[in-house]
Amino acid sequence: MSIPTPDHQRLIRKLKSIYRLDREDEMALGELPLRHKAVEENADVVREGDAPNECCLLLEGILCRYKIVGDGRRQILSFHIGGDVPDLQSLHLDVMDHSVGALTPCRLAFIPHEAMAALLRERPNLAAAFWRDTLIDAAVFREWLAGVGRRNSHQRVAHLYCEVFSRLEAVGLASNLNFPFPVTQAEIADALGLTPVHVNRVLQDLRRDGLIASDGRSLRILDWGRLTSAGDFDATYLHLRQAA
Amino acid sequence: MSIPTPDHQRLIRKLKSIYRLDREDEMALGELPLRHKAVEENADVVREGDAPNECCLLLEGILCRYKIVGDGRRQILSFHIGGDVPDLQSLHLDVMDHSVGALTPCRLAFIPHEAMAALLRERPNLAAAFWRDTLIDAAVFREWLAGVGRRNSHQRVAHLYCEVFSRLEAVGLASNLNFPFPVTQAEIADALGLTPVHVNRVLQDLRRDGLIASDGRSLRILDWGRLTSAGDFDATYLHLRQAA
DNA sequence: CGTGTTATTGACCAACATCAAACTTAGTGG
DNA sequence: CCACTAAGTTTGATGTTGGTCAATAACACG
Predict the structure, then answer these.
(1) How many domains does chain B have?
(2) Are residues B48 and B162 in the same domain?
(3) Where does chain B show beta strands of DSSP type E?
(4) Which residue does chain B place closest to A73, by CA atoms?
(5) Residues B175, B76: Cα–Cα separation, whole Å
(6) Which residues of B touch A135 (CB under 8 A)?
(7) pLDDT tens string for chain B (244 positions)?
(8) Which residues touch strand D (CB under 7 A)?
(9) Can you tell me the distance from the alpha carbon of B139 to that of A229, in angstroms, rounded to the nearest whole number?
(10) Is there contact between A219 and strand C, defined as CB under 7 Å from any strand atom?
(11) What CATH number corresponds to the domain at position B156?
(12) B173-201, pLDDT tens digit by residue?
């Protein structure tokens, strides 16, 4: 029983952003075996149809989950940041119904399902925390579904930026409204059900209106209040704990 | 310890469509206390912002989950049929981030969170079954997200009809390709991110092409093969067990 | 410096939305 | 059994958001 490593801390920090953990929970998480791996930009981590026997903890970089529909077009389903376990579901859903890919070079750590299952058996509080995590996942899908279905392009972009900032802040990866976000316009388009050309035009509008400043690598939110209202954003669906 | 009632059987049947239960699991489920309630068409069962202390088991009728976005437009997030527990998540997410409403008159049964939690503590196998259920829920959101983001209106309608049939069949509520589906075109539009007028035109195309026959009350799938390919439908994401 | 990726621009287009009216159907009460 | 009504469906005319295509500009990287 030793102090959790910084890599374990990433996971702990994430879980603490959504659920109350006690000292023993943290220690137990610290014992999880991690098989480290670096992946390069655009590599797939898991692919639709796979039946993985480990989960993937993201330590550094940005991952996304995505589906390719019949005619080859891509829909990005979620973005993931340090501390996330984007394929936690594979613990209970044998075969992947979507893929996980790296949008930037990433540092990952794989955790065997066996180890994860044993931990959850031991510690019901952690089982609850992880279950809650997957439920929040679903809540985010719902919000995106509402956005793609019923919000216009400007609202969608603004909403996405609000969400990304809120989530980064919740795990201590952004402390002010200026933070790295190296995601291309084409990727944003795939996440929002738009085309890259149109995303580009929307971004120009948002910049012209003084809501954001962005190059392809980082994002600066210039007016949080107006950005949230432009994006119809309300963080309730993220189900974050009040204080971290 | 007695034979589970037909109402309990609905729930058992649903869970068995996605997970292996043993005899004791079924018996334990049969002991769940059910507080029955009938709701009329268009009534809300739970509302965004509520913090319910019971879950809602649907026995008869059709429920939907939905969100209202900033400008008052509605996005339907999911349809639910007999055996579903659409707000199971409320067990771990205190405050509702969306509403649950009745699309038809419904028979419901409420199960106290307390009773549900006790059952899951007792029977890890059932905890796994319910967790899996919420994960499949999320898988369906993902599929809808991909549809609204990247499929055209014809594909979306066809896909929805394939999904509805597959789910009804999995729990024994449809045995052939002709089944009741009393959902209005306006509701379908709200589920698919379209307008009622456009849904109407798409339906006319699908009927003209001999894929379906439908009035507002029931749906007959005339050509399953062509409907699935028109809708780019692959049931993998429903994560059903091979045999019921 | 090339070279490849990403961002930007412009001209044009199509899918789907909007608006408004008419038609159908199911239910209700006389 | 027949108005009457309300909800849902269908139709037509027209509008707009966002898509498509194609070219150019700006970077980043080796």
Answers:
(1) 2
(2) no
(3) 35-39, 44-46, 54-60, 63-68, 74-80, 99-102, 106-112, 178-180, 212-214, 218-221
(4) B150
(5) 26
(6) 89, 92-93, 134
(7) 678 999 999 999 999 999 999 999 999 999 999 999 999 999 999 999 999 999 999 999 999 999 999 999 999 999 999 999 999 999 999 999 999 999 999 999 999 999 999 999 999 999 999 999 999 999 999 999 999 999 999 999 999 999 999 999 999 999 899 999 999 999 999 999 999 999 999 999 999 999 999 988 999 999 999 999 999 999 999 999 965 4
(8) A 152-154, 193-195, 197-198, 215, 217; B 184-186, 196-197, 200-201, 203-204, 216
(9) 29
(10) no
(11) 1.10.10.10
(12) 998 999 999 999 999 999 999 999 999 99
Are B142 and A141 inside 8 Å of each other by CB? Answer: yes
Say if pTM beats, i.e. exceeds, 0.90: yes
Contacts for B72 with CB less than 8 Å, ≥ 6 apart: none
The amino acid occupying position A19 is Y
- Residues A102, A36 within the same domain: yes
Q: Tell me the CA end-to-end span of chain A in Å, nearest whole number.
A: 24
Same domain, A24 and A100: yes
Option in B135, B145, B237 nearest A75 (CB): B145
Among the three residues B85, B107, B136, which one is the final residue of a domain in this structure?
A: B136
**CA-to-C1' distance for B106 and C29, Å?**
26
What domain range includes position B113?
6-136
